[in-house]
Amino acid sequence: MPLILLPIILAIVVGCVFWFLADLKYSIAWSKKRSELSSAGKWKELNTHFEKALKTKRPFLRLFERLVMPGVVEVDYGLHLYNQGRNEEALTLVDKALAKAGGRANRHATWEAMEPELKRLHALRRTMFGMAAVSRTQILNGMGRYDEARASAKLAQTSDTSGAMASMIEGLIELYNGNISEALRLAEKAMKDQKANDASRAMASGALAAKGRFQDAMNVLIYEPGKITAFFEPEELEVVTEDQPGRELVAAMDKDLAGVMQPGRYLGQALVCLEAGDVKNFALALDRAKKVMQAQPAIEHIYVRLRTICCAMQADTTGMETHLARARVLAREIPSRSARYETHLAAGRAYLAMGQNESALSDLEEAAKLALHPLEKHTTNYWRARAAEAAGRSDLAAQCLTAVTEDGFDTWMRADAQRRVAATN
Asked: Most CB within 10 Å of its CB: which of 59, 153, 365, 374?
C-alpha cells in the first residue's frame, strides 16, 4: 500500500469518531478494543470484532446508531477491509452506510436533487453521510474507477468535516492520474484543515517529489504529527474524558493514530531521499521510522520495502535479501494488488542498484502487470527503461522511455527520459 494512503484512510476513520451516549460503557469498551487491535496489527481479530459489532443486539446502541450516526461501523469496517485488498466487500459496506445515512435523499439519482434533503439532515447524520461518501470515493479511486470516484466526491460536500477530506481524496485521484500540479493544489487546500493535515502533507510531499522538487517535498514533512484530540470538538472531548474508561479510550485511539502518523512522517522523508539519491539521509530517515514503529502491518511493509532499496544502494546484499524476503511475506499476508505491485517495484529497483539487471527486469515486468493507475504505469515504465538500458536491451529501453515521455506528466522521470532519448538520437 502506498504511504500516502495510510494517513488518508486513518483520517477518514477517526473523522467518523462516534460516541453512543446511550450504552456509553459498552461503546467505550468496544472502541478501546478496536484501537488496541488496530495498533497491535491484529487484523484478523479486528475483523471478528467488527463482525460482532454489526450483529449487536443492544437496543439503545442500535437505536442511537440508526437515528444519529447510521452506518458508522460499516464505514470503519469497510476501510479496514480495503486495507486488506478486499475492495468489493469494502464497497458493499460503505454503500450500505450511505443508504442508512442518506435516508430519503437516496431516492434521487443526482447530487443536485439530493442536496436539499441532505441539508435538512441532523448535523451528525449529515457528517456521517459525508464521511461514507469520502470512504466510497477512496475505495473507487483505489480500484481505478476514477469517474465514479469523482462523482462520489461531490456527495462528500455535505459537511465541513467531510468537505475537507473530500478535497484530499480528489487530490489523490489527480495524483494517480498524473495531474501533479492539480494534486498539489488540492493537497495545499486540504492542509488548512487540521483533521486532514497529516494526510494532505503526505500527498503534497509525494506530488512535489514527483516533480523533482525534493527540498520542498522534504520541507512539507517537517512538522509535528497531529493527535487524536484534533478530531474532537472541545465539548465532545470533555464528555468522553470525564471518567477513567473514557480517558483510556482516548489514549488507545491516540496510540493507534501515532502508530501511522509518527513513522509515516519519517517514511515520507525516506521516500524523498530515495528519489533524490541521498543515500545517507535515506538510511537516517528509515532509522528514525523504525524507532517509532508499532505493529501496523502496512507500515512495516512500507518500511521493509524501502529498507530493501536502501540496503541495495549501500551494497549490503545480506540486508537487501533479508528485507526483501520479509516484504514478499507481508505482500502475501496483505493480499492487495497495491502491496504486490509495490513489492515488485521495490525489488526491481533494489536489484538494479545491485547490478543484477535481469533480476531487476523480472520483478519490474511483474510490477508492470500489476500497475493500475496511470502514475504507477509511468513510474514502472521509467524503471523498466533503466533496467533494460543496464541489461543492454536497447529496444525495450527505447519503448519504455517513449511511453514515459508520451504520458506528458510533469515528473522528474519524464524529464530524465527525454534526456535519455535525446542522447540516443
From this structure: 153
Is 241 in contact with 250 (CB distance < 8 Å)? yes
Return d(Cα 404, Cα 297) in angstroms, integer.
32
3-state helix, strand, coil in the chain (%, to 5): 80, 0, 20
Sheet strands (E) in 40-169 = none
**CB 307 within 8 Å of CB 289:** no
- Indicate the pTM of the whole model: 0.88
CB 115 within 8 A of CB 102: no
Torsion of CA 266, 271, 273, 279, to 10 degrees: 90
Q: Where are the domains of the chain?
A: 5-269, 296-424
Print burial letters for 303-340: b (CB count within 10 Å at least 16), e (below 16).
Answer: bbbbbbbbbbbeebeeebeebbebbbebbeebebbbbb
Could you read off the pLDDT of 347-391 as tens digits, one per residue? 999 999 999 999 999 999 999 999 999 999 999 999 999 999 999
Architecture of the CATH domain 5-269: Alpha Horseshoe (1.25)
Q: Do 296-424 and 5-269 fall under one CATH topology?
A: yes
Per-residue pLDDT of 107-134, as tens digits, reads: 545 545 555 555 655 566 777 888 888 9
Cα–Cα distance, 74 to 128 (Å, whole number)? 11
> How far apart are alpha carbons 91 and 108 in whole angstroms?
20
End-to-end CA distance of the chain: 38
Whole-number Cα distances in Å, 309 to 146, 207, 400 = 31, 21, 22
Fold category of 296-424 in CATH? 1.25.40
